[in-house]
Amino acid sequence: MRLNKYLQSSGVASRRKADELIKSGQVTVNGEVVREPWHEIDPEKDLVSVRGKAIRAMERPVYYAFYKPRGVTSTLSDRHAKKTLSDYFPHGTPRVYPVGRLDRESEGLMLLTNDGDLSYRLTHPRYGVIKTYRVAVSGGPLTDGELMRLRSGIVLDDGPFRPKKVEKTGSRELLIEISEGRKREIRRAIKCIGREVERLVRVAIGPLRLPEELKPGEMRPLDEETVKKLRESVGLS
Q1: Could you tell me if residue 89 is inside a domain?
Q2: Does 237 fall in a domain?
Q3: Structural domain tally of the chain?
Q4: pLDDT of 79 strictly over 90
Q5: Domain assignment of residue 21, given as a range
Q6: Could you tell me what percentage of the chain is helix, strand and coil, using 3-state DSSP and rounding each to the nearest 5?
Q7: Together in a domain, 43 and 87
């Protein structure tokens, strides 16, 4: 198994962060510093340490749906943030990491897990996982022209906004599906039609839906069938 994948699967860090740790010389294998993320190890025989701390054997994978409240930074720790995800974890919560992000003013579904393979595939553009959002915008009723602009694609400063679906669900409400995850992409696209986002709620990640009974700040474990469908959606068994 590759060293970076082992660190990710063990819940130490995301794949990108694992690469950074390895390249910066903070990871050792059997006491020797290794700087190549692709270095092959045997999890049953090799001793891997990060900053001198031995990494435990891979933990049983766990999966939680979490409703991120508005105003919360979607990381586990940030000394500049008033609140982070870990502020909402009940005592005894297993070590998990968020899959992707939601900007601070957005709310809704986040997946928390220590399943590195699933996390990687859900966030990698190659797998094209669709994320679904409910969006309320400022101003009067949305016009057909505005809907057409959103559906046909809007050029942003970092590339085109190409939603998979834009559906009008109310006079000022939209259901938007995207397969990318660029920073504040929906908010920037809405601004291009002369409006502001008043509320943005993520309601689905692939086949995983935001449970209706889940309230902001709450989390609950996923059942086996839900996990199976989620993994199968990105080619994992």
Answers
A1: yes
A2: no
A3: 3
A4: no
A5: 3-54
A6: 25, 30, 50
A7: no
**Residue 215: pLDDT band with limits 50, 70, 90:** very high
Q: Which range, of 22-26, 89-93, 232-236, averages the lowest pLDDT? A: 89-93
What average pLDDT is seen over the chain? 93
134, 198: one domain: yes
Q: Which of 13, 30, 54 lies at the terminal end of a domain, its last residue?
A: 54
Q: Which helix (H) or strand (E) holds 89?
A: none
Q: How many residues does the chain have?
A: 237
Query: Is 157 part of any domain?
Result: yes
**Cα-trace Rg, the chain:** 20
Quick check: 193 and 149 in contact, CB under 8 A?
Answer: yes
Q: Are 236 and 134 within 8 A, CB to CB? A: no
Give the DSSP per-residue string, 97-125: EESS---TT-EEEEEEES-HHHHHHHH-G
Confidence of residue 58 (pLDDT cuts 50, 70, 90): low
**Cα 52 from chain centroid?**
29
Question: Are 106 and 95 within 8 A, CB to CB?
Answer: no
Q: Which tokens sit at 65?
A: 């749906």
Report CA-CA distances (Å) from 135 to 142, 171, 176, 199, 235: 12, 11, 7, 6, 30
Give the number of C-alpha atoms closer than 13 A to the C-alpha of residue 67, restricted to the C-beta side.
14
Residue 98 in contact with residue 110, Cβ under 8 Å? yes
Are residues 116 and 226 located together in one domain of the fold?
yes
Q: What residues act catalytically?
A: 103
CATH of the domain at 172: 3.30.2350.10
> Which pTM value belongs to this model?
0.78
